[in-house]
Amino acid sequence: MAPRDPADVTDLPLERKAVLLSGQDFWSTPPVEDAGLPSVVLTDGPHGVRRQAADFDRIGLLESLPATCFPPAVAVGSSWDADVAERIGTAVGREARALGVPVVLGPGVNIKRSPLCGRNFEYYSEDPLLTGVLGAAHVRGQQAQGVGASVKHFAANNQETQRMQVSADVDERTLREIYLPAFERIVTETRPATVMCAYNRVNGVYASQHHWLLTEVLREQWGFEGVVVSDWGAVDDRVAALRAGLDLQMPGDSGAGNRLVVEAVRAGELDEALVDRSARRVAALADLVTEPTGGFDVDAHHALARELAAQCAVLLKNDGAVLPLAPGTRVAVVGEFARTPRYQGGGSSHVNATRVDDALTSLREALPTVTFAPGFTLDGSGDAAALRNEALAAARDADVTVVFAGLAESDESEGFDRTTIDLPAAQVELIRAVAAAGPRTVVVLSSGSVVSLEGWHDDVDAVLAGFLLGQAGGSALADLLTGAVSPSGRLAETIPLRLEDTPSHLNFPGEQGHVRYGEGVMVGYRHFVTVDRPVRYPFGHGLGYTTVGTGDLRVTATGDDTATVSLTVTNTGERAGRHVVQVYVATTAGPVRRPARELRGFAKVSLQPGESRTVELRLDRRAFAYWDVREGGWVVAPGEYTVQVGASAAEVVAEAAVTLAGDTVVPELTLGSSVAEWFGHPVVGAQLLEGFLASMPDGAAEVHAGMLEMIGSMPMRRFAADFGAAVPPAELDRLVAVAQAARAG
Ligand code: BGC
Known about the structure:
Blueprint: H1 14-18, E1 42-44, H2 73-79, H3 82-98, E2 103-105, H4 128-144, E3 148-154, E4 167-169, H5 172-179, H6 181-190, E5 194-197, E6 201-202, E7 205-206, H7 211-221, E8 227-230, H8 238-244, H9 256-266, H10 272-284, H11 298-309, E9 314-318, E10 330-334, H12 359-366, E11 369-373, H13 384-396, E12 400-406, H14 425-437, E13 440-446, E14 462-465, H15 473-482, E15 514-516, H16 525-531, E16 548-557, E17 563-571, E18 577-586, E19 598-607, E20 612-619, E21 626-628, E22 633-635, E23 639-648, E24 651-660, H17 675-679, H18 685-694, H19 701-710, H20 716-722, H21 729-744
Parallel strand pairs: 1-2, 2-3, 3-5, 4-6, 4-15, 5-8, 10-11, 10-12, 12-13, 13-14
Antiparallel strand pairs: 6-7, 9-14, 16-17, 17-20, 18-19, 18-23, 21-22, 23-24
Helix pairs in contact: 3-4, 4-6, 11-15, 12-15, 13-14
This protein binds beta-D-glucopyranose (BGC).
Residues 44, 105, 152, 231-232, 348 line the site of beta-D-glucopyranose (BGC).
C-alpha cells in the first residue's frame, strides 16, 4: 500500500488520528487504512535483528527469527573503530530489510557510569566521544539501508536497579558534558528516524514526560525531526507525555492512553495541534515500510561477524610474547566457555543467532595438539574437585594453557545490576591452580562488562578480554590466539583495582528512589586520572602483536577555538597491526574544575611492518569547551590547552600546547553579584576598583586591597549598604548598565 502524504492524517477525525499515538500490539504501529498508512514494525536490535516469530500480542523475547548476532556494543566500543560500527549497522539494516523490519531499536548509547550496570554490554563506553562516534556510525550504516534507528535510552539511564522509577539526579553541566553528547552527535549528524526515551526519571521527572529533554534540548536545540518513542512501558501519564514531546507510546495499551488524549482535547486541556504534530511524525515512519527482501547472505554475514569480532577483543597483557601461540605449541584449553561460548547479553537485545562458533573447535582446526578440560560448569553443578584435577593434568602436559573464564548469562542481564565485579570464586581458584601447575597460562575473558583481575592477574602470562563478541566470537578468538589476526582493541572502560575505587561507588545504585550523580563529570577515567589513582588497566589500554612509535606531533590553532593535530605513527615491530591514535586535551583554563584530560579525537590506522603514516585530526570547538551553567551554553575559556597523545588515558606519549583566544564572556552583573565578581568584571571591574581605592584615605589603599579578599564573597548590595560611602548607589547602577550593554553587545 503506497503511503499518502502523511500530512493527510491531520484531516482525520480526532479518534482516528489519535490511534497513531500508540502501538497496536507489542511490536507495531496500527495501520490507518483511510490515510493509506501501513503498520510499521519496530523491533530490537541493536547488534542483530530480533523479529519475533510468533504473533505480536505478547512479548516472546526468545522466539525470534534467526539473524546474525554481531558483536554487541561492549565489543564494538573496544574496537575504537567507526568502520566496525558502521559495517554492523549496514548488515543489521540489510537483515532488517530481509525480515520486513522498518525500524530496528538501537543503538544504545548510555554511558557506563558504573561497571555494575547490568546492561553495560549494550552500551559502548564510559566516554561520550567514543560512544557518540560509534553510535553515529552504526546509525549511518543502518539508515543507509533504509531502516530507521532508535537511539536509546534518552537519557541518564545508567543502571537497571529500579529503572522504571528511579530519579537520576544529575546537574546540567554533567548532563551536557557526559550523558547527552552521544545523543546530540547522533541526532545532529545522522538524523535518526526515532529516539527512544528512557524509563527512569531525570531530576524528578519521568524522561517520558520531560519537556526540557524531549522538546527543548532534543528538538529545539538539536533540531530532531523524527519520532520520540517510549521505551516499552515507560509512559506514566499519556497526556503529560504527549505535551512533553513523546509521540509514540509502545507497546500498545489497547487504546487506553489514546482515549485519555482524546478526552483531554475534548475537555480543552490539551491542544489538538499536539495530537496532529505527533500523529504526523508517526505517520511519516510509514515511508520506511518496504516489502521484505526475503533473505540475506547468512554465510557472508557470519564471516563479517568473525572479521569484526577479531577487531574488538583487547589484549591486556602478553608477557614474554606468549601470544600468538606458535605453530606446534601443545595447547591445553580449559574452561567451559571454550566449548559453550558466552557471546551476547540477556534481555530484549537477545538475538536468535544463525549459528555459533566455539573457540575450541576453531583452535583444533588451527593447531595440531589441543586438549580440553571444562574445569567448571556454568551452573556450578558437578564434581568440582574432579573437574579441577582434570584441568590441572591437562595444564601439566601442555606448553601453554588457555583458560576461558567469564560470567554466565545468569550473572548479568538487562533488568538488574551486578553487585560485584569479581569472577566466580571457583574460576579464580582454577586459574591460579592452572597457572601454578602448567608452564604458561593465558586467560581469555568473556563478560558483558569489566571483571576484576585481582587475585590472579600476576599469576598468568597473558590476558585477552573478549567481552561479548557475538556469534562468531569463538572463531575470532582463535584467530587472535593463533596470530591469524593481531589484536587491536582498546579498553572503552577502565578496569579498576577495586570496585570501591570507581567514582560512582558511593552513589550507585542510589536509595529511596534517587540516584545522585555526585561524581559529576568525573566519570570513569576522568576520575582516575584527575585524582591520580592507580587502576589495573586504564581506559584506552590495549596491546597488539607489534609495537608502534609516535612522532612529529604538531598542534596548530585554526581559529579562536579550533585546532588541528598531526602526528606520525610508525610500526616498529615485525607484524602488521592496527593502531589506535588517542588524542586527549588537558587544561586548567576557565572557572570550572576540568578532568585532568579528556578524549577529544581518535583514529584507527592499519600499519604494515616498518610503515609510517601521518594522521591528522581536527579538534572542533567542543574539544575545548565546557558547559557554563551561568551562561547556559558552551564556553571555550581563553588560555592554554595541552594536546596529549596517549597510549591510554593514563600514559601520555607526546604532547604539545596551544593557546586559544577562546570566547569573550562578559559575565552578568547585578547588585546580587559578589564583590569579587564586581572587581574582577572584565568591563567595569577596573573602573570600580580605581574609584574605590581613590576614595580611601591616603595610605589605606593597600590595607583595603587586602580587605577586598576578605569580603570578596559578600553580595555587592550588602557591601554597598554597609560600606556605602565608597561606592555610591548611582555609580553602581551606572556600572550595571555598562556591564549589561557590553554583555548584550
Ligand atoms: C528495553 C529497550 C527495548 C524494549 C523493546 C525495553 O525493556 O529497555 O531497550 O528496545 O524493551 O524490547
